[in-house]
Every structure is written in C-alpha cells, then in structure tokens.
Amino acid sequence: MSPVYQATASAPVNIAVIKYWGKRDTKLILPTNSSLSVTLDQDHLRSTTTSRADASFERDQLWLNGKEDEIKPGSRLATCISEMKRLRKEVVEDKNLAEPKISQYNVHIASYNNFPTAAGLASSASGFAALVASLAHLYALPVSPSTLSLIARQGSGSACRSLFGGFVAWQMGSDAAGTDSLAVQVAPQEHWPQMQALICVVSDDKKGTSSTSGMQRTVETSPLLQHRIKYVVPERMERISKAILERDFDTFATITMADSNQFHAVALDTEPPIFYMNDVSRAIIALIVEYNRLSIANGGGYKAAYTYDAGPNAVIYALEENIKEIAQLIVSYFPQKPGEFKDVLGLFGAGAADV
Ligand code: PMV
Q: Which CATH fold would you assign to the domain 195-349?
C-alpha cells in the first residue's frame, strides 16, 4: 500500500489593536504600516484545515465549509499553495531527502470555519494561517512560524499574525521583495493570562466593502492615512508593546481605542467614504466610554477597551476580573432584537495558536 500524505492544522482568529489598513504592494501584500494583535484562544473562532497530497489528484482543489472554492491561477490561494510547494522542494534539496515527489503531487484541501465567514470576524486570518500550517505539516517543513508568516501574509495580510499565539506584531519591513515583512511574537499568552476578549456579534451579515477594495480606496484617496502611517503608528507600536510587556492595562486600553477610532476615521476619510460601524457599534462605544469614566472618577483605572475591524462587531478587551461585569452590562443594555444585537459570543482568552 502506498503511504498517505495528509495533515491537519487549526488556527484561531486574531484581533488587531493597532490596525493594518493599506498596502504598499498589493501582489506581495506588503503593508503601509506595522500592526499588532492578540490571538484568541478558544474553540469558537477557529479554522481547521486538512491537506492531502496524492499522485492520483488531477489538480489542486479546495473546499471551504464543504463547498468547492475555485483556485484561480495567480490568486492568493494559488500563491500560498505554490509557495509552500516551493519551500518543500527547497528543504528536500537542502537535506537530500529520499522522497522528493510529494511537492509534485497535487493537493486537496478541506477547510472549516466554526463561525460566520467574512463577517468582520477575521475569517481570512485564521483560514490562511490554518492552510499554511497544514501544508507545513504535510510537507514536514522544519521552518519557524515567522517563515510561515511570510507565506500566510500573501493569502491575507492579517493571517500572518495568526501563526503565533499571544500578542503578535506584524513588522511592515522595508524590503521591496517582502522578505522582512513578517510576524513576531511580542509576548506569549502566559505572560498576561488575565487578558480576555469579549466578542459582541452585532451582525453576522457579509460585510459591505471588502478589506481589499476598502484599503485600496483609502490608500488612493485619504490624506489622513498618510499622517497615520508616518506620525501615529510607529510611536503607538512601541508604546503598546511596552504596555504589554509591563502588563499596563491603562496604556493598552487607551491606545487600542484610539487606534480603532483612527482606523474608522481613515475609512470615513476615504472617497467615497466607508462606514463599517453601525448605530449599535457606536452605542457600545458610548457605554464603554461611560463605564471607564465612572471607574476613573472612583479612583480606579480603565476597565475595558473596545476595538472594531472592517465590520460592525465589537471586540472588548478587558482583564478577567472585569469580564463578567462587562458581559452583563452589554447584555442588559442590548437585549437581543432581530437585526440588532445578535449575541455575546463568549469569553475568549488571548491564547496560543494550535498550529
Ligand atoms: O487581512 P485583511 O485583508 O482581512 O485585512 C484586515 C484588516 C483589519 O482587520 C481591519 C485590521 C487588522 O489589522 O486585522
């Protein structure tokens, strides 16, 4: 019997606290600024991907949630698969392995998301991270997560950060070929295990403007983006990394909320403008602002930090001791009505990716 070449890997979503928005190279997916995120570690928001290579497969094929998704030549999916095959060839040549053929076989890939796809819940991040990780297992590649992040990045920029657990930076790099635009871990989850995330699903509809076309429009038209890239993000990256290393929630929270606000301001500064948040999103912001104001007025510090990606759903970062109170507050102010506030999905520790 011939051997079976098959591997499965799973990766969680990550939610940025310093947002990536803008590409300086659209083919290689090189960003206009560095970004930083927290990888969520629970079973609810994950992609799980199985890859199989076999001499009998006539072409590469992919199924997403059970439905075949065409792998178009030159697409990001095709790029990730061919880059992984190239890595396998390199390793085989380097190590003089006896069994070089597997990189010549076509692959069949099946991927499942256990949450709504393309609803502003970072499904492309976990999806491409799991894809690259499963091919790395299939090809037994002895490479670091940072090396894999170079390839996941070419699937979806934010995917490069899901190759690590904990607190992760995507360094924008300066090389035109993209060899230094990769993810690094700022701190593992165990460094600050009290950090939790509450996901409030305001809507699980597909988003209106995709991140790809939104970013392109912003890069072409927003003067505010140029200011953000040059004067705001580099300093925020440094300060929030330090805040994470020092477990300083006040600084972490102020920077996280300011950066979410600026990302949505940049979207509004785009021509024509892009609106990702809705009235419920804005009402959640008002609630968190008031909640923090009361805590500070009573001599405490910040207790919660909201952030929004390219969609209306809120992610609230808070320390474990405050999460229950915040969840109760959200549910009492936003009883679920059809078409409005859908669900508080649950509590998510910031955790290690299982890749
Ligand atoms: O990787 P993409 O193309 O899905 O873009 C993600 C953009 C944001 O989620 C809005 C920000 C980020 O850094 O994740």
A: Alpha-Beta Plaits (3.30.70)
